[in-house]
Amino acid sequence: MTEQKNMLIAAVLSFVVIAVWFVLFPPQPVEQPQEPAAQVSSTETGAGAPVAPAGGTAGGATGAEAQAADAPRVKIDSDRVTGSISLRGGRIDELTLDDYHETLDDNSPNVTLLAPLGTPHPFLAVYGWLPTAETPVATPGPNTEWTLEEGEVLTSSSPITLAWDNGEGLIFRRKISLDANYMFSVEQSVENTTEAEVSLAPYSYVVRRGEPETVNFYILHEGALGKFDGVLNELDYDALQDLEGSGGPGVRQEVIPVTEAGWLGFTDKYWMTTLIAPQGQPFDAVFKYVARPDGSEYRTEMRLPVQAVAPGATAAVATQLFAGAKELKTIEAYEEAGIPRFVDAIDWGWFFFLTKPFAHILVFFEGLIGNMGWAIIAMTFCVKLVLFPLAYKSYVSMSKMKKLQPEMEKIKERVGDDRVKMQQEMMALYKREKANPAAGCLPIILQIPIFFSLYKVLFVTLEMRHAPFIWWIHDLSAPDPTSWMNLFGALPFAAPDHSSMLGIVSIGVFPILLGVTMWLQQKLNPMPTDKTQAMIFAWMPWVFMFMLGSFASGLVIYWVANNTITFTQQYIIMRSQGVDVDVLGNVKKSFKRKKNAEG
Asked: What 3-state class would DSSP assign to 531?
């Protein structure tokens, strides 16, 4: 039958796309940091090129680690982060996120974001100044011993000030403050007490030593990123190693002049560390990879213009450092406060026009209801409400097609094997009765981008991490933890993990509900008379059930809710059009057909 063939085409198309998606994206020793290259920002005007700073860097990795371990520290203690700042180099290099644990267990360690030299994966922010060839004075670098001039502990209400006197008439200060969330403000200043003008270039960079452990999932960007004059740049760790520009032996880099506004740094799945320039501040953004005998180094640098400091004057430059969780509301608040397109730090993907609204809707409903699982179901109702006019038109057309079955059978009997004549008479019948045989495909086809977009949102947004629903669902970003293989926890042994081969069939309650609701949807219509079509339809719910069993439980819950609402809509609309919908009878016929086939 024509409408059944169209539905089959749409269903097979949906199946193939999701199957391809599933195959392609299966749910699945340290040196001292060096100064930036001795060169001036391209935005500099009227100053000589900087030279390498006096003092250089530590002589070796072992010495650098020992110095880092022995350095005095200033404590960081706010409501959301704790850590410390090393007075050797004035590095922000130790930070823990107090609101987030590594696992669902509240007793598990908090997430560590920044880590100092000497740890397995150093990750830190460094600030400093470079002199120019015209004024080759001593400047503070990564190994400079700073003193704590003001403050005792860095909190959201009490900043600190570090100071260093170069002994040549220049006094450098670094004032660091922290807001109530994850934003550090760093003001670097230099006071010139000499009788001659000096030219200095401020810089900052975020550095990672060794390639960090990543999710390594194709749809997720992890690595360096930046937004420069409205253009988003993303480079994963492999891309950083493949940079073509040279910054010296073993150094590959890309330098991007920024004229109006920008930010850059490193992003993980849920966390981010970025340097941010004030609006209107030009600078050179640098992505860099350094190959070292003892490991790789990945850096993002912000090279600011040369500052000319007159005798008796003070020059200052202020930047910001975001180091924290990629919370949608928090990042949006920073964007509204003046950081351009900061929300794009979240990887929205190709369907950003859907993923962004979906994320906002989910966060809104979660705030309203207090539970992300129910928020997903509420959003499903909203999506179905928006698509209802199209669904109504589709189901009305399907009802007309169903009522036209007797006429269509008569045409087939009358024209016999004359396919051209049969097609002509069928099209005339559709036109006369205002029926669209393809209308039934549209609701299914529209679910494909919605499915992909919601999958992306559930996978990349922090709000889904460790978000509970009801009963056994404690993390909507993880698969349903139950399994039929141990009777959903009734038997005293653990079911196979989803990452194993057996885990593919070790599905839980909600994936089974997905298969059942999809199967019931099919029973709104009789099975096709063609044996091949009937077999495909019969297997499809159970293939989907196992295929999506290892996906995020939040996505499966959405699918179950969507199937339930779709079934209800179609049943009511078809009954209103005078179509006899015999779900129970169709179920009995399917079992009878199966029994006859086996016999």
From this structure: helix
Percent of the chain at pLDDT above 90? 51
In whole angstroms, what is the distance from residue 90 CA to residue 173 CA?
10
pLDDT at 50: 44
**568: how many CB neighbours lie within 10 A of its CB?**
11
Tokens of 398: 């399907």
pTM: 0.83
Closest CA to 549 of 515, 522, 520: 515
The predicted structure's pLDDT at residue 590: 64
Q: Are 80 and 98 spatial neighbours (Cβ–Cβ below 8 Å)?
A: yes
Residue indicated by tokens 């740049």: 233
Q: What is the DSSP letter of 494?
A: P
All structural domains of the chain, each given as residue ranges with its CATH number in brackets, are 2-24+357-598 (no CATH), 61-347 (2.70.98.90)
pLDDT digits (tens, 9 = 90+) for 343-369: 999 999 888 999 999 999 999 999 999
Q: At which residue do the structure tokens 């966060």 appear?
A: 363
Contact 579, 505 (CB under 8 A): no
CA angle 545, 394, 526 (to 5 degrees): 55
Task: Give yes or no for a contact between 267 and 225, defined as CB atoms under 8 angstroms apart.
Answer: yes
Specify whether the CB–CB gap between 207 and 124 falls below 8 A.
yes
Please tell me the distance from the alpha carbon of residue 394 to that of residue 504, in angstroms, as a whole number.
35
d(CA 579, CA 570): 11
Three-class SS of 205-235: EEEEECCCCCCCCCCCCCEEEEEECCEEEEE
